[in-house]
Amino acid sequence: MKRRKSVLNLFKILSNQTRLDILMLLRDSCLTASEVAEKLKIDLSTAFRYLNQMVENGILNVVKTPSGDRYDFSSVRVLRMLEEAVGLVYEDGEDLKLQSHKVDESTQLEKCLDARGQMCPVPEIMTKKELEKLQPGETLIVLCDYPLSAERIVSFALRNGYRVNVEKFGPVTKIYISLPEDS
Fold it and tell me: What does CATH list as the number for 92-178?
C-alpha cells in the first residue's frame, strides 16, 4: 500500500532533529543507511526507519548500486524550504549575533557569526548567507557548538574555494573563512 503524501507528514518528518541531520548529510552526497548511522552515531534500524519515511514521502530517492542502496534528495525544494524557514525564524537576527570589526589599521574586516546553541541546519544556512556577502579582505568567523554543523560548514567552505582555518575550544568550534587572495 502506497503511503499518502501530505503537508502534515512532511512537517512531522522535518520536526525531528535527527531527520534534519540526515537531510543535511545527504545534501552533498548519496549515502547508505550504515554510513548515515555511523556519521550520526545512531543505530542502523533508526537510520533505516527515518530514511524510509523520507523516501515514502517523496523527500529522498533510493539509488540502487552494487554496494547497496544509497539515499539521495528527490528535490532541492526541501532544502529551499528549510532555508526559507530559517530565514523566517531568524530574520531579525536576534538569536544569531553577527558583529563586524576591523582587525587592524589595514582594510581587513572580520565578521563574527555566533551560532552557538543552534542546531542543524541553522548554522549552515546562516553561514552560507553570510558567505554570499563576503568581500575580498573580509573574514567570516563562525562560532558553532553543534558538531555536525561545524563539520558541514568547513566542508561547504572548502568545496566552494574559501580559505578555512579551524580552532576548537572544548565544545565550541571557531571557523575562520575568507576568500582566496586571488579573488
Answer: 3.30.110.40
